[in-house]
Design a protein that fits this description.
single chain, mainly alpha, 8 helices
Length: about 200
């Protein structure tokens, strides 16, 4: 298919972007993932994101660069979610069948694990580590300090920062839900993509 390079002078529509780049993106994802169904799902998700939050591109290479970067992030998210899911399934498999949670409860726990992962990835590594060690593992601040090679005072700052971050996220989600909206995807910066 010939690319509509003339359309890029006036910022292409999502329809033009889809026509020009869908097959290419699908092929790129299929090679990267090794699975046509996953590739189709992620290519679809990439264009849905462009529908929700349109971006302007001044050239074909800028559009492809942006789509490849977005699709790469979607791949990482897919692999991360599958890793979390596999860890959860391994944990369930190690439990006696009599204490296995219901399918509904398993789904709720899995969603909570995805949210926790997202939260922890949004924090600096040492802050996230200190928070997990103190809050989830029950380690004392001196134990965390020794493990991380920092002062007890720094551990307290890390945990306070992570807790404050959790509260900000919770308040943001509560406000968004009250307003009747869904969280917007991360912003696009086509200028930095084009350069």
């Amino acid at each position: 298919m010939a690319l509509n390079t003339a359309d890029y002078a006036s910022s292409p529509t999502v329809e033009t972007l889809y026509g020009d780049h869908h097959a290419w993106l699908l092929g790129w994802l299929a090679r990267r993932l090794g699975d046509a169904a996953d590739a189709a799902d992620l290519a679809h998700d990439a264009f849905v994101r462009l529908l929700v939050k349109p971006c302007r591109f001044d050239s074909v290479p800028a559009a492809r660069s942006y789509l490849r970067t977005m699709a790469g992030g979607l791949c990482v998210d897919l692999w991360r979610r599958r890793g979390i899911e596999q860890a959860w399934l391994d944990t369930l498999a190690a439990q006696p069948e009599a204490v296995a949670p219901s399918v509904e409860h398993q789904s709720i726990v899995l969603e909570a694990l995805y949210e926790i992962d997202t939260l922890l990835r949004s924090l600096p590594p040492k802050v996230a580590q200190a928070f997990v060690m103190a809050a989830a593992c029950g380690m004392t601040y001196p134990e965390v300090a020794k493990e991380l090679g920092v002062s007890v005072r720094m551990v307290a700052k890390y945990v306070a920062r992570a807790t404050l971050h959790c509260l900000h996220l919770e308040l943001g989600q509560t406000a968004e839900t009250a307003a009747g909206g869904d969280p917007m995807p991360s912003g696009c910066d086509p200028v930095s993509v084009a350069r």
